[in-house]
Amino acid sequence: MKIGVITSLSASVIWAVLLSFWSLIAANIVSLITSGYIQAWQYFVAGLSVGATIIASVMAYRDRLNKFKPKFPSLSMDYIYKEIEVELYFQSREEITYSANYTIQALKDISGMQRSYFWTSSTISELPAIISPFNHKVMPHKDERESKKTVDILFEVPLKRNEETSFTLKYTLGDEQRKMMPFLGHLVRNPTEKINLRLCVPQGMVSSVNKCVYADTSATINLTQPVKIFPRTIGNNDVFEWKIENASLLYFYQICWQFV
User: Fold this and answer.
1) C-alpha span between 217 and 181 (Å, rounded)
2) pTM beyond 0.90, yes or no
């Protein structure tokens, strides 16, 4: 992303220089035409301006024709997240509920969106339940990867720019074979103001609960050292929570733990 910004700035500088030289040439031409006496410095300035303009024009032309110059696609977002709240709730070691509450703001006219979830164990409900003050609908989205659940959310009324909506998706999960990967994470694909990750388990079920930030979803490029999360007790459950403000794009925020 930084390289793309630098490339754009370089192109802007080149065009600014060209416009300056073209203006200077025009001023010199007018001065030469209207002046009854042409001084030596005017010839020098005119020649310098013409030469610099030719050189800058050739550089700009070669830059446009450079086949080896990397092209950076522009990022286009349909919406931003005002808030995301994700919870993994263990009724028992085998019975789990995943819920995610989203509040979005449209950046353009949109009629719906997609959401995906990776489940690393065996059982997941075919479609999530959707809870919303609006009559939004959830539909299955065909995806080649079996471990990835993707759904289409169709809004009751298409959103116009700057309009907001909210909804909650709930999946019923099963880990009968106890092979799930012990983490709860969120990859930031759109600008997001607030993220709240929450792990809720029966007391004594987990240990070594940490929060981590990664540069990839495979959690191999660690951007920070793991930081321990201390629980708060609600009834018979331990609740581990992590609130993130203004999350960075393409960062993977994760709560990880070990089962006791």
Assistant:
1) 13
2) no
